Amino acid sequence: MKELKERYLERLSELYPTIAKASTEIINLQAILNLPKGTEHFLTDIHGEYEAFSHVLKNGSGSVRRKIDDVFGNTLSSRDKQSLATLIYYPKEKMDRIRQTEESMEDWYKITLYRLIEVCKCAASKYTRSKVRKALPKEFAYVIEELITVRPEVSDKESYYNSIVSTIIGIGRAEPFIVALSELIQRLTVDHLHIVGDVYDRGPGPHIIMDKLKNYHSVDIQWGNHDVLWMGAAAGQRGCIANVIRICARYGNLDILEDGYGINLLPLATFALRVYKDDPCECFKLKGEQNRDINEKQLEIRMHKAMSVIQFKVEGQIIKKNPGFHLEDRNLLDKIDYERGVITLDGKEYEMLDINFPTIDPKHPYALSKDEEEIMSRLESAFLNCEKLQDHMRFLLNKGGLYKVYNGNLLYHGCVPLKEDGTLKSVRLYGRSYKGKSLYEVLESYVRKGFYALNKKEKERGKDMMWYIWLSENSPLFGKDKMATFERYFLAEKETHKEKKNPYYNLLENEKVINMILKEFGLTEESAHIINGHVPVKAITGESPIKCNGKVLVIDGGFSRAYQKQTGIAGYTLIYNSYGLILAAHEPFESTEAAIEKESDIHSDSVVVKRVLERKMVGDTDIGQELKEQIEDLKMLLQAYRSGEITERM
Ligand SMILES: O=P(O)(O)OC[C@H]1O[C@](O)(COP(=O)(O)O)[C@@H](O)[C@@H]1O
Ligand SMILES: [Mn+2]
């Protein structure tokens, strides 16, 4: 044991070769511990709505505006503060407009630069100089540092700053400088971003969101069921591929695949046009407002139906291949009487709203036709070989997981499967039982195996498991008793569409149950929270996202336009800064254009969920914990230098 310690100290002495260097590092780390905790920003269920996403990313769900309020208090009108906020979110676009009406741009630059520098100073004050320096845009790094640091040795500060600002304006660099400062403020306002699942599906730009996330300075992602669906598709799992394409078609978003990812859908299109030529495909109308031409719409509706039929077939095959999934009762194609146009479910007969299935052989309803097989095999290789998709999925794998414990909070997308009595539900997977945290962990390991396992069988299991995570009642990411896709397309009876939620969702107010879950994930402190997405909070009916006296926060972002009618708002996001937790309720996002022109911001309401008694410092966070350990190690090294166990390296 001692040997190990010695070896460790030797290694450490390579990094801190002298007493002076080790001491300096201890002092630096100690200083960081005493800075206020960085701001965390939580977003969930973005569902492809990249414009709204991009806006909340820019405004930090109200954090930028709060900074402006802190700095200017009553010395600026609320209008001016809002203009300044909009400028910080959209500097280029805003200046394009201002230039058209402003009489003296020079004055405007002066006032604006002064205001931005003040906000920037405030945003930077939470960080060490070294961290701020790393965030500075290269081109203006030196000047910005000059402007935001207090220089006691300069006696006439005002004229010092004024001369820098005048030079910037004089040499025609005011606008790029304003852009750089605005972006820096955005960057410094939020220290770390959490995405609590469901980047993908329903909206038009998940690939754009993924690109933005890839460039974001600090982020983690808890996968949502829709994300795992896309991961499964990228791994070549046919059930996932079929669902991904069906959902894109349903929302009129096939462009994501064709233009966003370069996946060729022509074979599917020609097939759908041929096979469903005279079929009105009534059950497969597209969702949302679709402003596209009628022929295009007709084509997409047919592709929607063609892919849905393929989905029900390939899912049937996966269910047969994996008896352990216990999903046999979801195989419905063999329950249809194709002659009479009815289906029998639980002993009851229902009329099918559509009975035109030219590719289904009633004796072998789950077999793909030759053409369907050909399409799926081409799609499989298209998904597997799509560089950009693979790159996005690698990012999800590297930055994400099924859950996260971070600064005393437990983050996951869906739920922890429970029994009616509130105890953990045990789930058998490939011969072993798992519940709670171990269920999360084994499922995550299967996802990774689906991408990386060398053993073919393990890899195959991993892939199928991604489809299972998408829709199984035992999946913590889905948490409903069935996914009633088939019934919702083909049956009029609403009772068959019902997807019953796991008891978890009825137990969210039960403190005993919530404490049990937190403890299961190693969180025993009274101050711990669960942060949850997945289920839209229906503010319209008075539902609150704050459950269990604030211990649970269900912040389904409601970004998804398709769901805004049901929720009545555009959902919630959460901020955790050094003063506590703040929940922001958002109004629907009209457009980027409106956000700039009308200076409309979409957070309508901010509720302080919890105000801490004492301001939280870095020392109180997970990173603070690590820093404290580093300090302890360095103290050990110092001791070793002083006692002569280790000699300084000069
Ligand atoms: O509204 P759509 O697109 O028809 O999708 C409904 C389906 O999506 C789900 O709600 C799952 O998606 P979420 O994770 O966004 O809730 C299923 O339970 C349901 O069958
Ligand atoms: Mn979800």
From TrEMBL:
Catalysed reactions listed for this entry: beta-D-fructose 1,6-bisphosphate + H2O = beta-D-fructose 6-phosphate + phosphate
Signal peptide interval: none
Cofactor(s), by name: Mn(2+)
Keyword Hydrolase: yes
Record's keyword terms, sorted: Carbohydrate metabolism, Hydrolase, Manganese
Cross-referenced HAMAP family: FBPase_class3 (MF_01854)
Protein name from the UniProt record: Fructose-1,6-bisphosphatase class 3
Naturally occurring in which organism (per UniProt): Dorea hominis
